Amino acid sequence: MIQGTGSHAGKSFLVTALCRIFLNRGLEVAPFKAQNMALNSAAVTGGEIGRAQALQAAAARIDPDVRMNPLLLKPCGDRKSQAVLLGKPAGTFSIRALDSKKPVWFRRIRAAYESLARENQMMVIEGAGSPAEINLRKSDYANMRVAAMADAAVILVGDIDRGGVFAALYGSYELLRPRERARILGFVINKFRGDPALLESGIRFLRRKTGKPVLGVIPYDLDLKLPEEDSLALDRTEFPPVRIGGRLALGLVRFPRIANFTDYDPFRAEPDVVLRDVFSAGDLDGLAAVILPGSKNVFEDIEFLRSRGLAGALEKNRAVRVVGICGGYQILGRRLDDPVGVESGRPAESTGLGILPVNTRFHADKIVRPVRWTHRPSRSAIRGYEIHHGRIFSNNGEPRRPMFHGAAGVTEGTRSADGRVWGTLTHGVFDSDKFRAAFLNELRAANGLPRRPAGRFDVEPAIDRAARLVESHLDVGAILRALGKSS
Question: Is the pTM of this model over 0.85?
Answer without folding.
Answer: no
